[in-house]
Each structure stands twice: as C-alpha cells, then as structure tokens.
Design brief:
- The chain is of the alpha/beta class.
- The chain has a single domain, classed as Rossmann fold (3-Layer(aba) Sandwich), CATH 3.40.50.720.
- Helices cover 43% and strands 15% of the residues.
- It contains eight helices and seven strands; from the N terminus they run βαβαβαβαβαβαααβ.
- Strands 3-2-1-4-5-6-7 form a seven-stranded parallel sheet, sandwiched between helices.
- α5 links the parallel β5 and β6.
- α1 crosses α8.
- It is globular, with a radius of gyration of 18 Å.
- Keywords: Oxidoreductase.
- This is SDR family oxidoreductase.
- One of its GO terms (molecular function) is oxidoreductase activity, acting on the CH-OH group of donors, NAD or NADP as acceptor.
C-alpha cells in the first residue's frame, strides 16, 4: 500500500525518544525526510544518528514561542517545504487535582496544550503552500479520567482534542487536515524506567488485549493519519488503546 509519503517532509516535536522517535523511524521507512526536536541535546544527537541521513534535529523548547517558530523556519530553510507536522510533546506530573502548585499547573499546561497550539500556528504558513496534515498526539486520558494520578494531564489533553476539531475548521480551505490520536498505556522508555512490573501488569489487565502498546503500535497509526490513505479524515480522533475505554468487564473474554 502506497502511503504517498515518499520525499515528503515531516516534523515531529519531541522526537528524540518514545512515541516520537518510533514515529520518526516509521516515516523514514516510508521515504520521508523527518525533522525532530528536543531539549536534551545529547539525546537528540543520538536519535538523529540512529535514524540516519533522512533525519534532521534541532534543539528546541516547544513551550517557548521563539523556539517553536525558529524550529519551523529552520526545517523549511533546510528542505524547502513542510508536509506533515506532528505535535507530540507531552509530560505529566503525578498529582491529585488539589495538590498542584501554581508552577506545576503552568508547566503542565505549557507542555501539553500550549505547545500544540504554538506548533500548529508555526506549521500553517508552510503547510498551506501545498497542503498538508497536522497530527496531534493527545491521550486516552482525554476521554477517560485518571482521578488521583494525573488530573491536569487528561484535562489538557482533552483540550488538545477539542482544539484539533476547531482548528481543522479554520484551516480546511488551505487544504490542511488536522487530526488527533488518543494512545492508551504505552511502553515508552520513561514508562519502563518509572513504573514497577506489578503496576504494569495491573494496567495491562484493564484493556481487552491484556498488554500495553509498543511505541511502534502508536507510530503506525500516526503515519496512516498523515498519509494519502487518510485523505478524507479531518477533525477526527483515533483511539489506540487496546479496547480500554469500551467495556466495564475487560476480563470477560478471559473467563473472569
């Protein structure tokens, strides 16, 4: 199946590890040139080296407006076009809603929502030259509450989903599609390093497929949504959760 991504230029924010890195590798496998950014220069350099000659890296803080626009400009100056922009930056602080400090509220907002808005704003002038796609990486937490664990993360990711739909209506005449994905529990390097095996097992038992997703299983749908195979999809969200949100008794098929 031809995804129509050969020689396209793809931008992925926060692409030095996790879902972003897996997506970068998947786009490159389809023949695209891929630009990634990150705040940690060593991790960024390592990722670019591993991805190979079709990768381009820029040190960038996606919560700072000047950095965001400079990143977009440098990608365009290097490749002469931008076809796909993936807003992938995100982070959570494990807090109940009553425990967040003002600084933590601001930081969670900036990373999970503000970065998406500013990334989309920076992308539009370049995408509108020939048409393109914005893919926003939200979370299943946008749809299903995570009470007591990461209250604001889900709230701001829900904002990403709403922004996706609203922004799609604003840029449709520029031939820009805007879509989002809602990943469920995913085995990123950070998850592997910070969550105990017993907790991983507990999380896995809450979905129909009884396991967490690999980063590659999230990257594949990102590539699909950005491709010509999804050319009639906009203002849409795709859940990739192993069926976690759809049933109250996920153990039924397993005799529980």
């Amino acid at each position: 199946m031809d995804m129509g991504l050969q020689d396209k230029v793809v931008v992925i924010t926060g692409g030095s590890e996790g879902i972003g890195f897996a997506a970068a590798r998947a786009f490159i496998a389809e023949g695209a040139y891929t630009a990634i950014c990150g705040r940690r220069k060593n991790a960024l350099a390592h990722a670019v080296a591993e991805l190979g000659p079709q990768a381009f890296g820029v040190s960038c803080d996606m919560t700072k407006e000047d950095d965001v626009h400079d990143f977009a400009r440098r990608v365009f100056d290097t490749f002469g076009r931008i076809d796909v922009w993936v807003n992938n930056v995100g982070a959570t602080i494990a807090r109940k809603g009553t425990w967040y400090t003002g600084e933590e509220i601001d930081r969670t907002y900036a990373v999970n929502f503000k970065s998406v808005v500013m990334g989309s704003q920076a992308a539009v002038p370049y995408l509108s030259r020939q048409g393109g796609v914005i893919v926003n990486v939200a979370s299943l937490a946008a749809r299903c509450a995570t009470s007591g664990r990461a209250t604001l993360y889900g709230a701001f990711k829900a904002g990403v989903v709403n922004f996706t739909n609203t922004f799609a209506g604003e840029v449709a005449s520029k031939h820009i599609r805007v879509v989002s994905i809602l990943p469920g529990f995913t085995l990123t390097p950070l998850v592997r390093a910070t969550i105990a095996p017993a907790d991983l097992e507990k999380q896995s038992r809450t979905c129909l497929l009884r396991r967490a997703a690999s980063t590659e299983e999230i990257a594949g749908p990102i590539v699909f949504l950005a491709s010509s195979q999804a050319s009639y999809m906009t203002a849409a969200s795709l859940e990739i959760s192993g069926g976690r949100s759809v049933t109250l008794n996920p153990g039924y098929s397993y005799g529980e």
